[in-house]
User: Fold these one by one.
Assistant:
Number 1:
Amino acid sequence: MSKHDFNFATDKAVSAESHDEYLSLYWQDGGVSRFHYQWLRDNCRSVERFDPATQERKALTETIPGDLRSNAIRIGEDDIRITWSDGAADSHFYATWLKNNAYDVTAGPSQSRQHQWGSEYASSLQSFGYKDVMADDVIAATMVDAFEKWGLIRLTGAPTDDREVERFADRLAYVREIAFDRVANIKVSVDPYTLGFTNSSLPMHTDCSGYSWPPNVMVFHCIQNEVAGGASQYVDGAKVIAQLRKSNPDALRILTEHDVEFRLWSKQADTLSQYPPVMLDQAGDLALLRYANWTVQPLKTVPFDTVPRWYDAWRALAELVNAPENRLSHRCEPGEMLLINNHRVLHGRDAFDDGEGIRHFQQVYMELDDLSGFRRIVQGEGGVK
């Protein structure tokens, strides 16, 4: 096997101890790491099982024997070699790789990347110059990092040209095209299929709940805003869910356990999904929030005896969503773009009088996976080294 290209600081293993299902490695710094034999075989970096060019596993995980053991462990200057009980080819690991991928660690308090916020965030809204982001990968990656943490950031000084928002998306990653629009023109329409294309107020909501995987990034570009009223409103769903967990854990449980049908349609398209309104990650933080009252279909998936408590739970969530201290109000000016995490941040709008001028925004969707991948590559954390 040729030496892989991971550039970690050198960590030296000084001894190893074999056990029935795992081995213990003792490090020069006094630490100890335990690795199951099946895990070691599964992650073997030898050329028989791993492609050094693509950095991808070639061997099939299901072929690893459940009773796998080591016959011998040899520690070199900077590597570890294992001879296997089933007679298969030896496995070879660089010590630095094993040290940096050790999984036998004491779990401390999880450190969420979510920086939760309320109305106070209006005075410290993370902002970046549009031209800087478009010209400099490092600044663009810093912007993505901030977006991953806050879920809502602002770009200033963007041209107000038609489809500039599409050019922005293509600069960093891709447009997530949906059935209704690739580039949506958010303005009063003579034949609207949803409330966004009227001058009515919009309650707090997330977009595209009718999709099984709603797009998780909205890019909202202000082109004209000459009307009276129409301020945008934002609420951090991550904070709301954390509040609900403290104030009413039973309500949170109900909203995570029972599917609800969400539907949005037009004359050309129809989206329909069936998922719980709230989905949590393994750490218990918000992973995906579906909240758009006008898209919720008649309840058919909640058990009869649970329906009254489901409505209680929804009211408890709505009370927090609409609490003034949780709501950020921002009137967008021409040339601003807002990036909104649609799986986390709810948005809404005050009513406006379009008799005094034009309110015109353009919007595209993107995927955070793509933006995060861009950031990792720029910051040197990409999978291919």
Number 2:
Amino acid sequence: MMKRILIPLALIVAACDPGTPPQPETGREPNPAFEAQIQAVEKARAVEGQVMDAAEAQRKQMDETEQ
């Protein structure tokens, strides 16, 4: 009988830990390696857009020549 009372009581006490709350993240200095990777991804997206536009223009031109 005593175990039935002590186990839930221990769990309740353990859940009420008055530890310090997590601190909000402060601004970090950008890592140059990550900045280079981010710039590379942005350039790749820009090139992808240009390639997609060129492909669409080529498809339209092919459709016009078929008619």
Number 3:
Amino acid sequence: MPRKSTRLPNIVFFGVDSLRSDHMSAYDYHRLTTPHIDRLADEGVLFEKMFSPNIPTPPGYIPMLTGRDLFSTQVVSLHHKDPLDPAIPTLPEILRDFGYSSACIGFGPGLYRGFDEYAEYRAWMNWEERPGDKAGKLNEVTMPILNRMAASNKPFFLFMRHMDPHSPYLPPHPYDRMFYTGNECDPNNKSMEPVFAFAPFADFFRSWMPPGVTDIEYVNASYDGALAYMDGCIQQLLNRLDELGIVEETIVVFTADHGETLDEHDCYFDHHGLYEPTLTVPLIIRYPGRLPEGVRVPGHTQLKDIVPTLMELIGIRPKVKFDGMSQIPLLMGDRATNATEFYITECTWMRKHGIRTTEWKFFEALEPDFHNKPPVELYNLVEDPLELNNLADKEPGMVKELRRRMNAWIKKRTKQTGKGNPILDYHIGTDRRIGSVATANKLQKK
């Protein structure tokens, strides 16, 4: 697959926060939430089984930007405070050695080091501050940077952290009611009662949900509306690539740091738990003339595989060891999957770890959690894809076997890296609260 020119390709990277793939029409969702991203998938390659195995934000974005796992990076929590190991180069640092300029929209330096330029935008708001025109605000700061980078004689790497699917879900009109035409304050509807009964997040929910809301389907539809709004704003950026005449020399990557739980498993409107809505994320890559169009790849891949994939697509070989593997062999039919099983963790509001295979998922609590979930959970993903039937008590032999395999993987990786398992270094407790949007924003910035 030779390149069309000697210049290295640009990379435009959409790294969305809190986007579960099963709510995208590109992934066969029943609502048309992402028509423009669907077209992007038609023009490139869609990976059907893409996973973010480590929750929350930092352990999602760091493998996306390094190709390394949590044992290498030691990043496993929202509250990671230490600098990233300087021996681990980030993607912009790797690309700089090959002549790239870079910019990051939505993060500051710190943990996400290595970019030449950083820019922030308005991504948090409460009910009174709506609309949540997050992607529009991102475009306002991104477009001048894109124009300037495209005018340069250097290849560029533009990374964008979209926040629209991250609560608060407050898309502007008409997206706020695009998928909902009912009465969200119907006094006869009691579906929001358990949401507001969850004390740790109740005040946070009230700070951005409509006063008096009673129908949980309104909030679910608001998530979908936020996706549709973001989709339209992303198309503006894709159109600009076309106007600049650089589509043919630009790799576009679309993925997410993790998914989002809506009304499943009593873990409301945030990325709690190790259930499938939180672990499953999209991945679409378009590179005209180098990648085929409209191909769907069924094999299992993870966020740590993206950087090695980009290295192969670009055709460069940095002197860097990656934990992930290129996904190109899956596309070419040379390998069926990049992983038949993998280690999973959450260290946000619950501290748990486990293992997911093609058939089973096992995870256990490292401390009690404020959702009062069982200490051990086991699901047959083939027979019970919604994870409604915990088989931990009925299948003790499978629990024992999966725990053995999980511990063997931990032992292998700690030996290989010479570092411990970072999830063991935290204590979360059951007394934490989020009282406002401002508090949530501060937690994201730690």
Number 4:
Amino acid sequence: MKNIVIPLLLLLFSCSSGSRYTIIGSFEGDFVKDGTVVRLYDMYDESVDSVVVENGAFVFEGRVERPALRYIAVDGRKRIVVCEPGETVVTFDEHFTPYLSGTELNGKINAVNNYVRSRYRRYMRRTERARDELSGYRLDSALTAIGKEIKEDISEYYGECVEENRDNIVSGYVMLNWAGMLDAHEIDSVLGTVAYLPSRELPPLVAIRNRKHRAERSAEGRPFIEVIGADASGNPVRLSDAVGKGRPAVLFFWASWCGECLDDTALLKALTDRYGDEGLTVTGINVREESDSDFRTAINVLGMSWPHIHVRDNAATDNYAVEELPFVVVLDGEGVIVRRHRRLVEAEATIDSLMAAHGSGQEIPTPPVTEARGRE
């Protein structure tokens, strides 16, 4: 019996020790001081470990069942590393750019980073040369062509990397970088055609994919998306009660704590005074409030006399792909999205043109609707 137990213990110890990882990090120069806390997060932004910088360096040690992507975070800045069996060395330069070595998968990520950096340096050299040699329209055309060429080069390279690493987590790292260059249906195509892709499991990638789908559904040329909430008196109200009735409309996404939102209310008042009698419909979409009372107080204090829909969850901002407040969506009389703007001052010219066409009875040109493709 003793002869059986000892080999079994050795086997268990061997399997356990094989999953141990060590990450040794350091910083070029002294831009990170001793005593600074360095944190290790998983892809859900849950804390995995934390250590303190000593003599310009730090060490993370732990175990993983299989290689996993993790964030190394210092003073709010995050970079990705693979926790995999073995000893990984990561050196950060003064721009917090990581250089990885020592383990297989981190070596592959470093190669990806090096290629992209080389393309960026090439882009900078070519644009500098173009600025020296060209001007005006020729310069603008040259810069556009250079940027397009470099982007296509990197995108093609990312595609090759995903295929080459379809059986390991490096594909996830590449997809996190590549997804910003793709539309939602292109992301779906990659995820749907590669039989095994660890990147499917990454919450940040899923969030990017879903955000892009929402942006396509609320793009210019698409019909408005319903918003359901409560008015200033607490009564149930729907956006469809006000828009798509033959009158141009403005959706103003705002919150009482948002300084820029409050700044924009003066211009919104001016627009309602200018076009209210001519049929312009304004609806405030109040979101991300801490309390209902803040919403009602802001309306009364600022004299925001137009109708409002107070939404307690994230449905409205998600559906309209609103990331920052304030945000403005301009609709035609049929409820089709004409333009999306970050600030109201940017939307003023759109509203002026829309109302001029509405007043003259002209057909208001809207961007073509893109048919939805892929899976929702």
